[in-house]
């Protein structure tokens, strides 16, 4: 059943579920609580062969993984983290290089014109967004040729206008657009930029009441309307 009230993203970002000051606060590069474990690959290994690697981390929290990466990636690396709440500590933290940590909404933020990324990650961040598909589509457009986008996604959080599940329709559209989805690890992947192709859904809003995700943590139910296909 559709809720009586759907919030748009500017309203949703004021709620405690979305304005989350615990997201990725302690997660490092390797080990038990790490990006390598959650993503099933080591970001540094993928980037280290590049002369000027560029990594964008969405919902980056304190940016610990990015900071740690500065110690092993080339000095020319471009490392960017974007988070709605932003880092709670502005200290240098692990690593010695420069990391660009941006406090902004993912629904409005965009990188500088012309900048592309070799790796874009979002570790358990999409759960807390309303317009998940809009962020996915925009982020895929920031990939460099041969670049990789990988993000956790719970398709059960998508709903049709009448409240019925939209998971199958959403996953079918993502796969048609060139994304792969690992249902066991709940990981969405895409190699190479999406270009001008958009996903065929209109975002209607999000349920302000949190819903459970497979992680056991609360998330946001996203309401979408399928668009007619040409």
Given this structure, which CATH class is correct?
Alpha Beta
Structural class: alpha/beta
For this structure, the CATH topology is: Rossmann fold
How many domains is the backbone divided into?
1
What fraction strand? 15-25%
Which strands sit side by side, in order, in the main sheet? 3-2-1-4-5-8-7
Q: Radius of gyration in whole Å, from Cα?
A: 17 Å
Plain-language structure description:
The chain has 230 residues and is an alpha/beta fold. Helix content is 17%, strand content 24%. The chain contains six helices and twelve strands. It has helices at 9-12, 35-39, 43-47, 64-69, 132-140, 167-176; strands spanning 54-58, 78-83, 100-103, 117-122, 143-152, 158-159, 180-182, 187-191, 201-206, 211-212, 218-219, 222-226. The strands form three sheets. It has a seven-stranded mixed sheet with strand order 3-2-1-4-5-8-7. A three-stranded mixed sheet has the order 6-12-9, with helices on one face. Strands 10-11 form a two-stranded antiparallel ribbon. It starts with 8 loop residues before the first helix and ends with a strand.
What labels describe this entry?
Rossmann fold, alpha/beta, 12 strands
What's the arrangement of secondary structure elements?
Elements lengths: L8 H4 L22 H5 L3 H5 L6 E5 L5 H6 L8 E6 L16 E4 L13 E6 L9 H9 L2 E10 L5 E2 L7 H10 L3 E3 L4 E5 L9 E6 L4 E2 L5 E2 L2 E5 L4
Parallel strand pairs: 1-2, 1-4, 2-3, 4-5, 6-12
Antiparallel strand pairs: 5-8, 7-8, 9-12, 10-11
């Amino acid at each position: 059943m559709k809720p009586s009230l759907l919030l748009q993203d500017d309203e949703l970002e004021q709620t405690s579920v979305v304005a989350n000051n615990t997201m990725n606060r302690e997660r490092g590069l390797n080990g038990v609580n790490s990006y390598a474990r959650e993503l099933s690959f080591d970001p540094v290994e993928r980037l280290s062969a590049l002369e000027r690697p560029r990594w964008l981390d969405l919902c980056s929290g304190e940016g610990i993984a990015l900071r740690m990466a500065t110690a092993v990636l080339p000095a020319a690396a471009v490392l960017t983290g974007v988070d709605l709440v932003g880092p709670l500590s502005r200290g240098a933290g692990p690593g010695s290089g420069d990391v660009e940590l941006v406090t902004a909404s993912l629904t409005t933020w965009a990188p500088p014109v012309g900048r592309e990324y070799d790796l874009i990650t979002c570790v358990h961040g999409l759960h807390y967004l309303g317009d998940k598909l809009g962020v996915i589509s925009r982020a895929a457009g920031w990939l460099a040729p041969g670049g990789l986008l990988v993000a956790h996604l719970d398709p059960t959080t998508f709903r049709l206008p009448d409240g019925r599940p939209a998971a199958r329709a959403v996953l079918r559209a993502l796969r048609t657009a060139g994304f792969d989805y690992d249902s066991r690890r709940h990981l969405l992947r895409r190699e190479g930029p999406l270009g001008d192709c958009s996903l065929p859904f209109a975002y209607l809003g999000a349920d302000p009441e949190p819903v459970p995700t497979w992680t056991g943590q609360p998330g946001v139910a996203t309401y979408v309307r399928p668009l007619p296909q040409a």
